[in-house]
Each structure stands twice: as structure tokens, then as C-alpha cells.
Amino acid sequence: xxxxxxxxxxxxxxxxxxxxxxxxxxxxxxxxxxxxxxxxxxxxxxxxxxxxxxxxxxxxxxxxxxxxxxxxxxxxxxxxxxxxxxxxxxxxxxxxxxxxxxxxxxxxxxxxxxxxxxxxxxxxxxxxxxxxxxxxxxxxxxxxxxxxxxxxxxxxxxxxxxxxxxxxxxxxxxxxxxxxxxxxxxxxxxxxxxxxxxxxxxxxxxxxxxxxxxxxxxxxxxxxxxxxxxxxxxxxxxxxxxxxxxxxxxxxxxxxxxxxxxxxxxxxxxxxxxxxxxxxxxxxxxxxxxxxxxxxxxxxxxxxxxxxxxxxxxxxxxxxxxxxxxxxxxxxxxxxxxxxxxxxxxxxxxxxxxxxxxxxxxxxxxxxxxxxxxxxxxxxxxxxxxxxxxxxxxxxxxxxxxxxxxxxxxxxxxxxxxxxxxxxxxxxxxxxxxxxxxxxxxxxxxxxxxxxxxxxxxxxxxxxxxxxxxxxxxxxxxxxxxxxxxxxxxxxxxxxxxxxxxxxxxxxxxxxxxxxxxxxxxxxxxxxxxxxxxxxxxxxxxxxxxxxxxxxxxxxxxxxxxxxxxxxxxxxxxxxxxxxxxxxxxxxxxxxxxxxxxxxxxxxxxxxxxxxxxxxxxxxxxxxxxxxxxxxxxxxxxxxxxxxxxxxxxxxxxxxxxxxxxxxxxxxx
Length: 669
Description:
Elements: E1 31-32, E2 45-46, H1 56-66, E3 95-100, H2 102-106, H3 114-128, E4 132-136, H4 153-164, E5 167-171, E6 189-193, H5 200-203, H6 207-214, E7 219-223, E8 244-247, H7 249-260, E9 269-273, H8 278-291, E10 294-297, H9 301-308, H10 323-335, E11 340-341, E12 345-350, E13 357-361, E14 369-374, H11 376-385, E15 391-395, H12 408-422, E16 426-430, H13 432-442, E17 449-451, H14 454-461, H15 467-470, H16 482-485, E18 493-497, H17 503-511, E19 516-521, H18 524-534, E20 542-546, H19 549-557, E21 564-570, H20 588-597, E22 598-608, H21 611-624, E23 629-631, H22 649-656, E24 662-668
Parallel strand pairs: 3-4, 3-7, 4-6, 5-6, 7-8, 9-10, 9-15, 10-11, 15-16, 16-17, 18-19, 18-21, 19-20, 21-22
Antiparallel strand pairs: 1-2, 12-13, 12-14, 22-24, 23-24
Helix pairs in contact: 8-10, 8-14, 9-10, 11-12, 12-13, 19-20
GO molecular function: ATP binding; phosphoglycerate kinase activity; tRNA (guanine(46)-N7)-methyltransferase activity
Keywords: ATP-binding, Kinase, Magnesium, Methyltransferase, Nucleotide-binding, S-adenosyl-L-methionine, Transferase, tRNA processing
Protein name: Phosphoglycerate kinase
């Protein structure tokens, strides 16, 4: 087939059998939501209502489809590409850099914990896949007295070797393969770089340091979930220089557990919240009060709530700048009819005689006494209400000061929750206070979900984006029900990456009804507008999805039951100020996904109004497709005619001003 004389009746392109249609499209009106397992995936597809003549069944069908077209942008970053779902065959021979959490290794130097086992499994999995593994991590040098394994990089490498049963070679000096002698890299060995805390560029997320750290590595695997709230060169900056950034087995499991905190599938759901600093935690408390069916405040936070409820509380226990925040949370609880609990009694220390302690009624006179921990009556209250709930979150300490001898309340609360977990109740423990007291009392592993690092969870509950998660490649969170989206999901599929306002696909779908058309577009507003236009489009062979196709193409298209016959990329990112950024979407991950999923003799159509942009896209497709893609015929020096007879909106604009378009067609062999 000649690229510049594209034949619409070609047997190579069974989807090109034109049939003109006079169907027009008008703005549709609907409001679509999709409530996924996380409870937070409420879609932003908000469209004002207007009177339309179309049938009610058509509108209802459109609503059903739109549930999968857009995702909540505030939580979409949580759906990341994982090592578990990455093709094993693509790991062989690749240099893979693993960011390991040293706390998993140094916090438990006895029998392996489940978290440590998962972290080690990540490295063993890569090693077995014949990848060249580099480990980067950091550890506090103050731990050397308690952990001789970290007194030097050599001893740490030796310790890792004993855990992995594989030789680990330490590399002193500045991390990066540029300073490493390749002949030292034995085929059956793993490389360990120097402690990252020894370099300022790590904490500063220095671009130069990130580039040197990643030098030689093509794939990055993050298995240090406890650092997700930090912006580091080894968790964020490095992803800019690797073609794939994935979550390791431990990271993936911890992220799944984190999302469970906001999952309201199991109800009733109660949160036991402790600690102090009400003002800083207010956004997280607002999140919890909107999710849970009950809140039990302990620790210093309880005084703020008690004050808001009108109870007498000594002024020294009150955060004056957080009074309004407490009142707002109480009001939301009343509006939702959510009960708020607080301690009925407290263990207190006498201010004059620190050795004297007694139980004091929390509503009584606290002058002269310093609260230390929750009392027996409070524990009885907790024990009585816990059976009413099917899901429990405990986050924050129950104690009011740091006196270790007053940890009885926390330990007994751990016992109560331990029993609840064995009674089919889902229990989530957050922070050292919760996790350690439970483990110290039970002396064995429990069925509870545990998060040692409370900061990650607090930041998540505040609605803030966690940089370490956001930096990883994304996957599409839903499995699209193709039989609902399209009338016949076995027809050949045409995918337009960066579909924009959708005019190109609307016209293509009307002309070529023997194919299905899918538009992938990052701009959700444009996708919503396209979905509006589809409401009156009776032929169900067109659909749009709001996503970043660069990293989600494979997860979306791989589930399509029919064949992928054509992929188009037209004038990506028209930015006149930064011309080199126009083809940034064409990365190795996208090229490999397209080449793998495209049917034999399937085609890739590339065009741009800037020849250098087209050449860049063409070069990447030919380079990263592993010989699966070739130029289809003669593209006439990139000046071939449009083979479809349908121009995109930007193409029309360029041609209208008399400027040329540059095009090429590739084919899978």
C-alpha cells in the first residue's frame, strides 16, 4: 500500500468501508457518577440539564457508559503501574534501579516480617527475570550503635547478601553507573549504591543529582512506601530519566491498604483518633467525619472536641486557634447524624507529686492534674461500642504525654481491637503507638492492617497528593465494559491519542461504521464535551476516555475483545513557545504498548505541522518497536495526502493558512 495514495477499500484496512451519515450532534444533559471500591471515585462529569428530544433510554444508556470515561482527578494519581503487571519479558537485560526502604531491613533483624518479605521479593523477582538490579536506599547513621549492619556500606551489602542469598556488591562514592567500572558487575550480582543521606542532592531533589543517580538505568521500581510524602531525588526526580517507573511488591501492597482507609464498603465504620495538634490535622478530620459513621477522640484532640461541645476544659489544654475548626467538625457530625465520642475518665499525674496518679473524671476538675492516658471507664465504653462496627481505624496515640509507664490504656485498646479483628471486623492501625502496643501485648502477628508511618496516612487523609506515588507511571483504574460502550465490541478498534475536541473521531465514526473509535484525551473538560455530543449519536461505535494515554494505553486497550487496527497521533501538544515538547507524549512505554497490541498489518498514523516533531515521533516508533513497525510504502517525503478524507480541527487550521502538514504511516509486520 502506498502511504500517499491510501486506498479506502484496501483489504489491509477492513475498518475502512465508508458510509456517510447525516446524523448531527447536540449538547447532551446528564450527570454521571462512578463509586468505586475506594469510595472517593466520584466522577466530575457534571453537565447542566436541558430539554432534548431524544429518548429516555438513550440518555440512560449514555449515563451508564460515562461512569468509566472520567475519573476523579484528586485520586487518579493513586492508580499506578506496578511491577506485578509489567511484562516479565521486558525486564530481561534491563538495568533496573530499586528504591529500597531500609527501615524494613533495620527495624526487624530477626525472622522476616511480611513487609520485609515483600520488599525482598521485589529484588528476587527482578533478579530471576535476569534484570541487572541496582539498589539505592538511605539509613540514619545514628542507628549504627544498635544495628552494626549499617556501620559501613560494606557491612550493609553483606547483610543484604545474607537476606537475598545473592552477592551484593557495594559501590562507594557518588551514586551512578558513570562512576562504576562495568567489569566489576559480575553477571550474577546486585549493585548497592552509597547511603543517599550522604548527598545533599537527595533531599533537595536536585535535577543533576537525579540524572546522575539514574544514569544507565532504564526502569525504576519504588519499594519505599514510607517515603511517599517526601520529595526526594531517589523517589521523584529519578522518574524523569527512566522510561518506566513502577511500584514494587511492598509499595503496591501498602498503597492498596492505604486506599482501603477511604473505602466505605464495610459499614458501619468508626475512627479512633488520637494525638495532638488539632489545627494541623483538621483537614484529615474533616475527611474522616465525611467518611465514617462514628468518631472516638482520644489524646489531646479530645479536649478540643470536649470544649466545642461546651464541657469545661482547662485553658492550657486548648488550642485557641483551632476552636472554629472543632466547631465545624461537630456541626458536620450533627448534620450527618454521626456520633462523636470522647473519654469519660483519664489517668492523671499530680502536678505537685509526679509519683502520684489516679483516675479523674474527664468532665470533673482537672486543675492540678496532668492527663496521661485514657481511663478504665473509657476503655469499657470503647469495648461496648466496637461490636457495633464492621470497620475500625485507629490513628494517633491515646496518651496525653510521653510517660512510658502510662501505656496501659493503649495496650488494652490494642487487645480490644485484636479481638475485634478475629470477629470478622476490619481493623486498621496507623502509627507506632497503635502498631507497637498491639504487637507488644499479643507477641504475635495479627489480622490487622498496620501502617508504621502515620505521616503518610495523615497527608493522604488531608487530601494532599503524595509525591512518591504521583511520580510513578499511571494505569487506568477501571475495566471498561466494552459491550456496554459499543454496540459490537468485536469490530476493529481505532484509537486516536490526544483526541482533543473529538471532531476528527465524530466524522470518522460516521463515515466508517464498520469500526469502533476510541478517543484518549487528558483534558477532562474536552472529554465531557465530547460525551455530550454523543448523546444523540445513535450508532454506538464511538467513545471517549479522560486519561494520560502515555502510561495507560496498555491497561485500557488490552482488555478490548476485538482487534486494534489503527492508532493515530496528530499534532501532539501544539506549544509554539516550546516546540520540543510537542511530541513528549511519545515515549518508549507508549510505543511498546502500541506495537504489542496492534494487529498484524495494523497501522500507526502520525502527523504534525512541524516536520521535526513528526521526525521525532517516527524515530521513536521505529526505535522502540523492536522491529515490529516499518514505514508503510512511500510517505512522499512526509508530504503524503491525508488517507482518510477527514481532517482534524488543528489540521484544518493549518491548511487554512496555507501551511503544510507532515504525515507518515507505519505498519506492523
